Tripartite tricarboxylate transporter substrate binding protein
Amino acid sequence: MKTACNLRRRSIIQGLAIAPFAGVGALTSPAARAQGAFPAKPVTFIVPQAAGGGADLLCRTVQAKAQEVLGQSIIIDNRPGAAGNIGTVAGARAAADGYTMTFVNLSTMALNPHLYSKPGYSVADFEPLVWMASVANILVVNHNVPAKTLQEFIALAKSKPGKLTYSTAGNGSGNHLGGEMLKTMAQIDLVHVPYKGGAPAVVAVLGGEVDASIADPLAVLPHIRSGKLRALAVTSARRAASLPDVPAIAEVVKGYEATSWAGAVVPKGTPAAASQKLSQALLAGLKDPANAEKLRSQLYEPTAAPGPEFAALIRKENEKWSRLIRQLGMRID
């Protein structure tokens, strides 16, 4: 009898000794450990554009500083195709665990959802992380075009309706929509010539295949500075600091603005703690003085704004561009 009591008493004591640690197992479950140690492995940053372009420049410029702050590698995964839809779909389908960010821009977040009947993703599939930068695109002309200013270009277009041509990176691109907005607001008739990418669109204006182009600054700045192309205006609301002598279209066409922008998002449902760490890392990369100077030299203005501001921009831009797309009756498919 005494032995049985002793055994029961020993079991109770052992149970009491173990009890305080019962919750530790729950706290250190694989999911809890992964969240607590985030990031425990490299983070993938999907870029739905080809390597070497403006999107790639922006992401790779901030990469080193962001990795330093995050304490893990950031792997840039270029997945171009279908006007950015292919890479954006991959980002939307990624696990919401903090280990995948997706680079997004005006096209993928505010144009494609209205131009494509089935882009394969929705803006609602993502949570905005950081508004990284705003970009002033540039209206340039071949030197055989007699117009030296935007006013002269508009006057020339009005004197020759349907004769002047302009190139862009493709149908439905941000610069295509910017060109159509210019046509509507300035009441001119230009012929859009789409190319498969920004590089061939610039080659076309250099070679005189088209009269003008609205292009990403990275593609045309070297040709402007070498004198091969003439810059007439930038598409942003104000002049760009790196091109102070080039006016904004808005100085001539009141109310015009077709600023491009870019940022990072994560899949909806990503843990807030992971999102916060990713955001802090990207913001540090954007605010680094050397990085900011490099981006500004290419007309990329580092906005470095957190998720809520980026979400507000995306909503505003969707309202603006969806109206124009409906007005023009544009569809890609």
Q: What stands out?
A: Residues 1-35 have pLDDT under 50 and may be disordered. The first helix runs from residue 2 to 18.
